[in-house]
Amino acid sequence: MKSIIGGFAFVLLSLVACSGSESTKVEKKYKYVCTMHPEIGADKPGVCSKCGMDLVERDTTK
Question: Which positions make up the signal peptide (predicted)?
Answer without folding.
Answer: 1-19
